[in-house]
Amino acid sequence: MAVADNKTEKPEGWNRPPVMEPDGDGELLEVAMGPHHPSTHGVFRMDVALDGERVIRLKPVFGYLHRNHEKLAEGMSYLGSMPFTDRLDYICSLTNNWAYALAVEKLTGQEVPERAEYLRVILGELTRFQNHASSIGFLIQEMGASGTPLMYAFREREKILDLFEALTGARMMVNYMRFGGCRVDASAAWLDAARKVVAGLPAFTGEMDRLLSTNEILMARTQGIGVLRPELAVNAGVTGPMLRASGVNYDIRKVDGYGIYNRFNFRVPLGDHWDVYDRYMIRLLEMRESIRILEQALKDIPAGPVMDPKAKLRGFRPKPGEAYGRIEAPKGELGFYLISDGGPNPYRYRVRPPSLINLTVLEDMALGENVADVVLIFGSVDIVLGEVDR
Amino acid sequence: MMETLDQVFVLLSRWLVSFLPAGWRPAAGVALGAAAIVCLFPALFALTVLLERKGLGRMQNRIGPNRVGPLGILQPVADGLKSLTKEDIVPTSADGVVHFLAPVVLVTAVFMGFAVLPMGRNMTLVRMDASLLFYFAVGASTELSIFMAGWSSRNKYSLLGAMRAVAQMISYEVPLLMSSVAVVMIAGSLSLDKIVEAQNRYTWGLPHWYIFTPWGFAGFVLFAIAATAETNRSPFDLPEGESELVAGYHTEYSGFKFALFFLGEYLGMFSVSGLGATLFLGGWSAPFSFLGWVPSWIWFFSKLLVAMCAFIWLRGTLPRLRQDQLMNFAWKFVLPLAMLNLMVAALWHFLGHGWARWVVCSAILAVSYVGMAWAEMRSKHLGPRSYRYAE
Amino acid sequence: MLGEGILKGLAVTARNFAGSFVSAERLTTVQYPEERIALIEATRDFPFLVYDGAGWEAGLRCVACQICEKECPPKCIYIEKSADKKPDYVGKPQFYPARFDIDISVCMSCQICVEVCPFEAIKMDTEFELSTEDRFAGLLFDRRRLAKPNEHYRRIHPAEAAEVDARLASEKAKADAKARAASDAAAARAAARPAKGGD
Fold first, then answer.
1. Which residues in C lie closer than 8 A to residue A199 (C-beta atoms)?
2. Which of A328, B15, B96, B306 lies at a C-alpha separation of 20 to 30 Å from A14?
């Protein structure tokens, strides 16, 4: 769909800040949802003004989890920042590591061995699978259902986390990618265990599909709610499953072809109704595509080293320059912008957090909706506060 | 011997009461029965709470509570002790008397409903000719107590929550009544005892329960939906949802009063399941004639247990409906179907006794259900979707 | 048909409910602390210092080079070098840490210290039941608490330990061979000189 050209008819007021007039002259009820709230995915506040049950104004307030990541990185070596990138989007540590390693590799022009690229793809897709499963689980949890899909998602996630622990030593804060490859090699036993886990994943997505996708109550709660127009999504810089649910075909794995993604056969699902239900289904379909990529990668992984032999662990001083490395993280485009001045620490280290950028359209999506749906719309954006606040 | 077992409670009550002078015996018998109900159903409540937590756990691939006592049997005791020892906070601006009375009214009204349920052969506490009418009158008073709770708290949000809960309960009273009226029409009496006796007949060993008729099956489904909404259970529990802005009518209650609200809700569940079992599942009659030797009260309580399991199953599977969707569903879907069901029941009565009436009635109900469902989903553009992939 | 999705969902939950009684796949609870999951071999919790032999002070591999202190991202290691030297596993005199503190309330288990250590002196332990009531001194581990024998390392990470042992053994063999060659050469030179002097 051609959203970037200037000839498509755009709706009235699409590029102005959102505004909604209350009808009736009752007082507006101003409520702060959060930061201490069971459904806000972390410490996050929404200042909501309500007219009856309709949302008139919504202002997100965040920063409760700000930990000074970018400034700290200026005082630390490049390697030392790697464990801190784990803690950005703490559910998807491996993709955070990958984006940072990609940025540094762009800065230095290092080569990554083929086996390492395959391992990165395998771990990245496993991360994407468990992130989407958890995201769907949390969305349904906020809708009621006493958290049953969440428990199923976490049951599968445990298997994937056990794989991570066997390879990297830690379940969540993995600190695994290095500049020029991966820290340790995967043994044949680990690859077999991974194949077994991946073989069990289609049954799980089938189970979630049967439990949820045609559930009438789910459809009534999510279809037509929280519509995000594609031109607004593109203008606001929204990326990831949210953008694809708004019908825009933009997947960095296809656009940039970073790593060896252009060797794999996978499809990009797109949504046509741009609502919460589409976002939920896109994540489910992407889980299926991840399984396809995993099967291909686990079959074709070659033997070889996993680390660039010329890579230095200590005394790493890239030449002066700047680089922006980005990947298709499970939540959107995760980018690292690095400026090096030739020293052991970066001069400027900037993270482009997909959750934060995606959150900027929350007000547009929630205006005019029932207050009971605000939590659902917020859940469909799928944010992690560690990334929003850094 | 089985006869004695079947009537054991009745005989026990008569024996105990025989120690008193003749003038006092009827009143004493009723008092004894009432005392038995007041002791039995809270015990069942404790068991159900445990069953719910363990059942939900198992559905979610985990064990429920199992640390307090073997298999977690003493968990309700721990919960009860906890709620008894919590500080009882009453807001200063609250209306003290009404605030205190609201949970009491709830529990009293719900207990009164049990008086007319036939729990076994000759085991109805009070036999009345219009016991169904009495039941609905008393059941409607539970809504009064919810409004008392919301009003007395002098809290804008509690009041809003209470009004929404009362609106929900009132909307679903009507389909509840309508489905019961179909049973009354066919059984020919408002008395719950006569309704059970009408169903306590067998043809080729199979019972004449009303659920095995087309109008009875539809009526039962509508009754079940309305009952779930009446007792504020999932998927209709928005007034109690945690992710809700308005915390509900019991925001200002803590400690034992909150436990009483909880008790009232579960007792309401038992009560309405008991009514459903009486109206559609034959009350205390056995499912097959060759099982008639099993005591009747065992059948009644097993049906109650099955209903509880169904409630728990629904809670573990279904997300919540939003308030306006809930009300929409009641007035535009459940109520018309309930009225249609009434007419189909009448048609059933007048179409003779052959197989023709089965076909006609089932056809009418099936077509109308599918038609209305399709119209409802279409009007809101809801439905499963197929997704395209990028080129 | 309306209600079909709900019925399918109910079927899935029912299958999980029934399955939780028969298959371990559908009942994933591990009742800690009575039951424990077997620790995965590669797991890492907090660092510890390796010593060879029986005496922890004499056999400590750490030579207080302070590389781990510099590379540690949250700066949780504090090292004080000794004034004197002691021989290491190949016999070369090395400094040793007079003080080696790790604050495990700060440590984030990233194991960069393990990666950069040139002497295989610091490794990751697998103990996680470290709760204590004293949140300052109880979580500050000194070198006595951190020092654990090589047998412990072999027990918790057998594959890694075997690799490390092999590497150290080959280093020792090379050093021994060099020392023998040097002493042979010295002995040969010493044997040659008296013969010359005796002339």
1. none
2. A328
